[in-house]
Each structure stands twice: as C-alpha cells, then as structure tokens.
C-alpha cells in the first residue's frame, strides 16, 4: 500500500503544477495538518482515493468549513485498508486557539480514545500535528512535542507515527525520520510517500487483529 503523507505547506507539484499522473499508484492520502481545505479537496478529487486528516493549530477554518469529501480522524480510531489509524490534531498551547493543548489536556484526549483502541485491537498508525518530545520536535515552545506521545508509543507500539508542524526548512539538517523503540516517526512536511508492503500489513493484522470499517472499501 502506498500512502502520500502531506502537511503544513501545499506542494506546487501536486496543486498549481499538477499533472494527471502525479498521484498514480497512491492508495491513500494522509494530512498531518495546516493545509488549505481547497488543497485537500483537490487531492481527493484528483486521486479518487481516501483522504484522512487531522487539524493543525492553524486550521481553525475547518470548524466552519471542513474539507469536503475527506475524513477527519481527530480523536478517532478508524480502520481502513486493513490499517488502524488514530488521529490527535493540534499542538502545544502557546496562545489562545481551539487546536492548542496543554500536556494535561493531550493526556486526557488519549485517555478518552483508549476504549476505541481496545475495540480496534490496537493501532498501526498514529497521525498527529505536533511531534513527539525528543524525536523531531523543536526547541521553541510552540514547536515542542508532547511527552504523552512517548508514553503512547511505548504502550501501543504503532508501526508508524506521522506528524507535521516542524517544517523541514526550519534548519538545514532537520531529519525527516526518527525511531522510538519499534515505531518509525515520520515528519510529513509538504509531501512524503510511505510504501507499506502487503506482507507488513498482513503481519500487523495477524499480530493484533483488525476490524474493517470506514466509508472507502479496499
């Protein structure tokens, strides 16, 4: 399965300079936040594939005008294509805003989705806007990660943890990928293609079990 990961900056090659073959072979698109609704709507229209998203700290417009044709997975566990996704949007609270959270508030959100995780038999991919503390976050307060994301990874061992918020161009040597225990952490800034072998998906199903639901069949 081939996933297109996007966040924070609209990719010109996938929008203003789009060519019909640019999304060929993509099975699913996952947004880690801070992207224009028109951009996500364009991607779902051009690809005819599922577009899953969570809000970033700048996505307050989603409250009144959510991206049409796309699926918000914020505070939700959704199983699609055999993969169990958990979405936790927003970032560290640095001012007033609907998608900003203290550490305690993010911990509370995680507690509230534990029942969904148990019902799904685990989680394979966590999608957040903020990064994991010490694994791809930045030094300034607004771009620091959440400590509770470390605990989430250590408790549920998702195969992948996808985030945005920390732009790759903030520093010349910002790595796109990190590893925490057996979880691969990926910064989805602008665009990144993640290919998950079918054998790996089958192994995840066998290890934790899966329940298929959602509005896009595979």
Spatial strand order of the main sheet: 5-6-9-10-12-11
Please work out how many helical segments DSSP would assign. 4
Helix content: 10-25%
Summed over residues and divided by their number, the pLDDT gives a mean of 92
Oligomer: single chain
Number of strands: 13
Helix-strand string: EEHEEEEEEHEHEEEEH
Query: Low-confidence segments, ≥5 residues, pLDDT <50?
Result: 210-218
Fold-level CATH name: Purple Acid Phosphatase, chain A, domain 2
Overall tally of structural domains: 1
Give the overall form.
globular
Quick one: biggest sheet?
A: 6 strands, mixed
CATH class: Alpha Beta
CATH architecture: 4-Layer Sandwich
Distance, first to last CA: 11 Å
Per CATH, the superfamily is Metallo-dependent phosphatases
Q: If you compute it from the alpha carbons, what radius of gyration comes out, rounded to the nearest whole angstrom?
A: 16 Å
């Amino acid at each position: 399965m081939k996933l297109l990961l996007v966040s924070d900056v609209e990719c010109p090659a996938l929008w203003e300079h789009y060519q019909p073959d640019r999304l060929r072979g993509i099975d699913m698109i996952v947004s880690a936040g801070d992207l224009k609704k028109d951009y996500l709507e364009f991607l779902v229209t051009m690809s005819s594939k599922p577009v899953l998203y969570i809000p970033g700290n700048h996505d307050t417009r989603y409250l009144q005008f959510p991206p049409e044709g796309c699926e918000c997975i914020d505070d939700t566990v959704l199983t699609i294509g055999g993969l169990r996704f958990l979405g936790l949007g927003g970032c560290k609270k640095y001012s007033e805003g609907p998608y900003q959270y203290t550490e305690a508030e993010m911990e509370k959100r995680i507690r509230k989705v534990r029942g969904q995780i148990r019902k799904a038999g685990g989680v394979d991919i966590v999608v957040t806007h903020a990064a994991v503390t010490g694994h791809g976050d930045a030094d300034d307060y607004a771009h620091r990660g959440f400590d509770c994301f470390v605990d989430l990874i250590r408790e549920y061992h998702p195969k992948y943890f996808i985030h945005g918020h920390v732009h790759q161009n903030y520093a010349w040597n910002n790595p796109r990928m990190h590893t925490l225990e057996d979880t691969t952490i990926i910064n989805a800034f602008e665009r990144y293609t993640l290919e998950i072998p079918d054998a790996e998906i089958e192994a995840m199903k066998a290890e934790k079990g899966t329940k298929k639901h959602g509005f896009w069949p595979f």
